[in-house]
Amino acid sequence: MESSEVYTIIVGEKGEYGNRLVRYLENHLPASVRIRRFTGAQHFVCGREEGECYLFDELFYEELSEEQKSILSGKEKVILLSLEEKEGYFCKFHNPAELLERMQLPCVRENAAYGTGSDRERMFSVIYSPIFEENLRDMAREFMEPGDLYLGVEDLGVSGKNCADMGDLCYYIHLREENILKILGEMVSEENGIIFLDSPDMYFYLRELTREDYQWFFDQLKKESVYGDVVLGEGNGFINNPGVFRQFDRVILVDSRDNPRQTLFCDHIEHILREDFFEGSLVRFRKEER
Fold first, then answer.
1. Contact in structure between 51 and 10 (CB atoms under 8 Å)
2. Which residue in 85, 200, 242, 250 is a FRET match for 149, CA 20 to 30 A apart?
3. What is the pLDDT of residues 138-157, one digit of tens each?
4. How many Å apart are CA 288 and CA 258, to the nearest integer?
5. Three-state SS for 232?
6. Whole-prediction pTM
7. Residue 258: which residues within 8 A CB-CB, separation 6 or more?
8. Helix (H, G, I), strand (E, B), or coil: what is residue 176?
9. What is the DSSP string of 68-127?
């Protein structure tokens, strides 16, 4: 097939997962791909809708007639979706990028980098502890190299220090200051090769900015060549919903072997991100194993 041909992917899934899957495919596949979604087996008629690939929830597939299943058995690409890890199925909790690879369509291979953010020059990470962690910046060092930038957006900063912090920078971010990177450069400190700006004394300063304000600031940093990767050390005051994590390429969750409630919370966050098709990498970091 020529890459200019139209490809059809048929999705059979009646739940919220089907909505997210269709949205993901639309954002990560070229315009030559047409996606047809069915929410009930009674609406799907084999032969009337032909596709290069069929993605069916296992319950949706079970509701098909034996005749329909027989027709589908002759199709090259039929992938069944399951909530469990089972041989021959695609688990819904896996990264959907794996599903794209498994589909093995020519248009997918030709457009492998489409919409994936693979052209980013700089990695943006967040290290997050659901419980206040006094040594969060030290923990972040485990994931940083000399020249990387650490920004503190924790609940409690270093009280009594006579130097600039993220609270001061928030003022200029809110103004969309044209020279924001120059201002940042005048505020940061350096220690053992790591460049950092500490958290403010109170997280209220951080909450004065909108998500759009932070996104504007991150966009400025992505254009800047002075710093290496960027790591934000986050506390609960910075996060109003799990969608905040989608701004990052990597999420590092601070877990604790000795605190089962902290582990349970991290489990919930990881589950939410995977259900929402978070495309970055997820890391669980146990502070006792440093």
1. yes
2. 242
3. 899 888 988 899 999 998 88
4. 8
5. strand
6. 0.61
7. 288
8. coil
9. HHHHHHTSS-EEEEESS--TTEEETTS-HHHHHHHH--HHHHHTTTTTS-TT-SS-EEEE
